[in-house]
Design a protein that fits this description.
Strand order of the largest sheet of chain B: 1-4
Number of domains of chain A: 1
CATH class of chain B: Mainly Alpha
Structural class of chain B: mainly alpha
Largest sheet of chain A: 2 strands, antiparallel
Order of helices and strands of chain A: EHHHHHHEHHHHEHHHHE
Order of helices and strands of chain B: HHHHEEEHHHHEHHHH
Number of strands of chain A: 4
Shape of chain B: globular
Helix content of chain A: over 70%
Distance between the termini of chain A: 15 Å
Strand content of chain A: 5-15%
CATH topology of chain A: ABC transporter involved in vitamin B12 uptake, BtuC
Radius of gyration of chain B: 19 Å
Distance between the termini of chain B: 41 Å
Oligomer: heterodimer
CATH architecture of chain B: Orthogonal Bundle
């Protein structure tokens, strides 16, 4: 008797088909089905700070920073095809601009953060401009070098506090404000990017990722689009950096540290590449995890690299894609 | 004269560091970001063999190199083989391996492992002493680097041109599908290249480390240097690697003697950006690579 073989069959839930295919939603049930995951995420993010004590509230702020970086990484890697290993560049530039505006010119945080976000994004885009002609691993390698390069420039010239950094920056007035500034930024960015990638702009970006020669052949200037995409991603990173400086009231060369480059990548891979919401979830899972392991020193870097490797090898789709499938489809085994 | 000699030695150091990376990338198209980690790991293995287990120096080196080769093979067999053809995942995975190795070396207190922290680790030079060469004092270790570097590069050149396995490596590098049709096992070739590349990283470590301290942070520095050389030379190009390492070696030595050592990495990245602006495929990149980049 031949061995029976089974295979898994995935079928869309009927409500998926109804709420996805039709433009007119006809019942509250369908509307809830569509809205529930989004509303849940927003409510969870807004309520999270109210449920934990002060120490963990600060950790959540850090998680928000990583979430912004992860969003930027995911956007660049999955929608434009530029794998940027140097998220720390954005953090460092944003942080240093707002920090020096605050420390040397005595600007208030509400003025220095927006200026640093915008100015930092322009500077980072200009720095990355010569490399935009490159693709794939070439861009990854170069972007990996830039943070190290910035560190050595600061050490070599001795400007901006050199190795000691700048301390005594203004901090936010209350811890609530700290949290809701960064959480608001994360949510706004998340929904903005999700809308952006489904517009024509996003379509062109994905075209550039898949086949840039074809996009060029349709008379579209691919470098201009890449510049815009990098500008958006560096806006996020520079805002996170500027915010970070004011969060701790201190900045130093550690703004260019490897943590800011590798943790967002781990979060993105864990949460699911290309989903945009996944990286946010990943960041909010990974950061508290690594914080809980702070007592073990370097073990936490090792740990999140192991998580990263595990996900990339055994679950490359990531958490959110998996959940998404479970939400929209049901599975059953059938005989072949 | 001093600049000429030390520049040559410096260039050879860059070439030694980069040669393993180029080999791996040239054959398997895998950017092995664990290169620097293996370099440092071999250094520490050597150090432990000598100082903790009191082994003979030569034996320790051989053992450490053998372990590096096996490690490279394992990395390919268990991790990278699942990710072939996905450059993003390859980069991220090998970068994760590199971080695990490097930060793992700094772990403390697990199973009595003390962790390698601080500037206390040095490997002894092969022979002590200096020699006066045309009015410049140069120690034996640097001479050994020069000779060994030239030997290694020559040997690789001969191996890849006149042995069967070397030829199969080049075949895979040039056209993977055609090579597979002729019976070259592409996975095995990639595995060999990764293990040879790791051993070369280790060899570079053993040769270079006696000149200075051994620290975990060097892993990142070595990786950046290897990447810089390969980018300037055009990834996967042999002649390019050699020329680029001389270009970088001399420009770094010149800038160091003119402005001071802190400017080293500024010069490095500056050179890269200039080269990329004017010749995006690197000095010796081939046409195929140009297509891939632009």
């Amino acid at each position: 008797m031949p061995k029976e073989e089974k295979r898994k069959k995935r079928i869309d839930r009927s409500i998926t088909v109804r709420s996805r295919g039709l433009y007119a939603l006809t019942s509250w049930r369908e509307m809830t089905f569509l809205a529930a995951p989004r509303v849940l995420l927003v409510i969870a993010l807004l309520l999270l700070p109210l449920t934990v004590d002060l120490y963990w509230q600060r950790v959540l702020c850090a998680a928000g920073i990583y979430a912004l970086l992860a969003l930027g990484f995911d956007f660049l890697a999955e929608y434009v095809g530029l794998v940027c290993l140097g998220g720390a560049l954005f953090i460092g530039i944003g942080g240093y601009i707002s920090g020096s505006l605050n420390a040397y010119l005595h600007w208030q945080p509400w003025a220095s953060i927006p200026v640093a976000t915008l100015g930092g994004a322009i500077i980072s885009t200009l720095i990355l401009l010569p490399c935009l002609r490159l693709r794939g691993i070439y861009f990854a390698i170069i972007s990996f070098m830039f943070p190290l390069f910035c560190v050595s420039i600061i050490i070599a010239t001795g400007i901006l506090g050199s190795t000691e950094g700048i301390s005594g920056l203004d901090t936010f007035s209350s811890v609530r404000m700290e949290q809701y500034v960064i959480f608001g930024a994360v949510l706004i960015t998340l929904f903005f990017l999700r809308r952006l990638v489904s517009e024509d702009f996003g379509l062109i970006l994905r075209g550039i990722k898949d086949n840039d020669q074809a996009v060029r052949a349709s008379g579209i200037n691919i470098t201009a689009y890449k510049i815009k995409a990098v500008f958006i991603a560096s806006l996020l990173g520079c805002f996170a950096g500027a915010y970070l400086g004011h969060l701790y009231g201190w900045l130093g060369l550690s703004l260019f540290a490897m943590d800011f480059s590798i943790l967002p990548i781990a979060a993105t891979v864990m949460g699911g590449m290309g989903t945009l919401a996944g990286p946010v979830i990943g960041a909010f899972l990974l950061t508290p995890l690594s914080e809980a392991l702070r007592g073990f020193g370097q073990l936490r870097v090792v740990l999140y690299c192991v998580v990263l490797l595990g996900f990339i090898l055994y679950k490359p789709e990531g958490l959110l894609n998996y959940l998404d499938r479970k939400y929209h489809q049901f599975e059953r085994w059938e005989n072949v | 004269m001093q600049i000429l000699i030390y520049g040559t030695v410096n260039s050879m150091i860059y070439a030694l560091i980069a040669v393993g990376f180029t080999l791996v990338y040239g054959v398997s198209r895998i950017p092995n970001f664990a290169h620097g980690a293996i370099y440092v790991l071999v250094g520490f293995l050597c150090w432990s063999f000598i100082n903790e287990w009191h082994m003979n120096y030569a034996l320790a080196i051989l053992l450490a190199l053998g372990m590096a080769a096996i490690l490279g093979m394992l990395i390919y067999r268990f991790i990278l083989i699942r990710l072939r053809g996905m450059p993003t995942s390859e980069i991220i995975a090998s970068f994760a391996v590199s971080l695990i190795l490097l930060e793992g070396l700094r772990l403390q207190g697990i199973a009595g492992f003390k962790g390698f922290i601080g500037p206390f680790y040095t490997l002894p030079p092969f022979f002590d002493g200096k020699v006066n060469f045309l009015g410049v004092f140069i120690d034996y270790q640097r001479l050994i680097i020069l000779v060994a570097g030239a030997l290694i590069i020559g040997l690789i050149y001969l191996l890849t041109r006149y042995t069967k396995s070397g030829l199969s490596l080049r075949a895979i590098a040039q056209d993977e599908q055609a090579a597979m049709m002729l019976g070259v096992n592409s996975d095995r070739a990639a595995m060999i290249s990764l293990s040879v590349g790791s051993a070369l990283a280790g060899l570079a470590a053993v040769l270079i480390l006696p000149l200075g301290n051994l620290a975990v942070e060097q892993g990142y520095k070595v990786l950046v240097h290897a990447l810089a050389v390969c980018i300037i030379g055009g990834l996967g190009s042999w002649a390019g690697t050699l020329w680029a390492s001389f270009l970088i070696g001399f420009s770094v030595i010149l800038s160091t003697s003119l402005f001071g050592a802190v400017w080293e990495s500024v010069v490095l990245v500056g050179t890269i950006i200039l080269i990329l602006l004017f010749k995006p495929s690197g000095l010796f990149g081939k046409q195929k690579e140009l297509e891939e980049r632009v």
